[in-house]
């Protein structure tokens, strides 16, 4: 059976899969990223993991993988196949495409940004599969975005398209590591909600999931924290939809696991803020934490399907 190798490299863990031509998961595996051992060890771990997947695919399906797709965090030069920078992995200018090609016997390799590859999967086979224009927004430790247009994801002129977590929604507000003050992710990310709820309830270990549970039970302090976060999120999203006019707005990441505790007030807040804009469908992501891996697999298939031989990126 024809298949490709897909790797989704995160700050703490790596997800991997063998992916069929229709985007189906034929095999899945996980292991720690091992960043505590240093950036070189992380790269070695990626190469070893990919080699093991190649061997498994040959044994299981009677032939080698056709290509490799890899999703990585940070700044990615998809054209050159270089992981340019990732603060949480400690690497700079890692030539992942070349290293993987050398290790795996000249298999073609597609490299993509983790959020954009997740958005690619959600757009093609997940919550946005029927939308010609979508915006995928995963809300976790930070907030990012992937802009989907006709089955592809826009990277931007310099690879920074979709960074809506750094839209300023509270001018002069909390400092952000990016250098601005009042960025969206400082008020509406899962990390920001966790911090605010821990302070409000007096439990340093409390997190955003605990806050969502307290909201559902009617705790007034939790409701206040949650409303503040939803208001900031709505402000940022309205700015994004004003610029991009998506047909579908897909919300993923840890905060989306709150379900209608998040989506009901968020839809209301966005609706109240729009004037001339068209209200998009606001829906939860469908693929969960497999989105990055599936997207990496789609990148690999795109690379094979590209008739002019140029590299497809996301």
Description of the structure:
39% of the residues lie in helices and 21% in strands. With 314 residues, the protein is an alpha/beta fold. Strands 3-2-1-4-8 form a 5-stranded mixed beta sheet, with helices on both faces. It is globular, with a radius of gyration of 20 Å.
At the fold tier of CATH, the topology name of the largest domain is Nucleotidyltransferase, domain 5
| Uncertain segments | 307-313
Distance between the termini: 26 Å
Query: What kind of sheet is the major sheet?
Result: 5 strands, mixed
Mean model confidence by pLDDT? 92
Radius of gyration: 20 Å
Tally of strands: 13
What is the total domain count?
A: 2
What form results from the Cα inertia axes? globular
Keywords for this entry:
single chain; 314 residues; alpha/beta; Nucleotidyltransferase, domain 5; 2 domains; 5-stranded mixed β-sheet; 9 helices; 13 strands; globular; kinase activity; kinase; ROK
Brief overview:
The chain is 39% helix and 21% strand. It contains nine helices and 13 strands. The strands form three sheets. The chain has a five-stranded mixed sheet, with helices on both faces. A five-stranded mixed sheet has the order 11-10-9-12-13, covered by helices on one side. It has a three-stranded antiparallel sheet with strand order 5-6-7, covered by helices on one side.
How is the topology of this model organized?
Blueprint: E1 4-9, E2 13-19, E3 25-32, H1 39-61, E4 68-72, E5 75-77, E6 82-86, E7 91-94, H2 96-103, E8 109-113, H3 114-125, E9 133-138, E10 146-149, E11 152-154, H4 185-188, H5 190-201, H6 208-216, H7 220-244, E12 248-252, H8 260-273, E13 281-284, H9 291-305
Parallel strand pairs: 1-4, 4-8, 9-12, 12-13
Antiparallel strand pairs: 1-2, 2-3, 5-6, 6-7, 9-10, 10-11
Helix pairs in contact: 1-2, 3-9, 5-6, 5-7, 6-7, 7-8
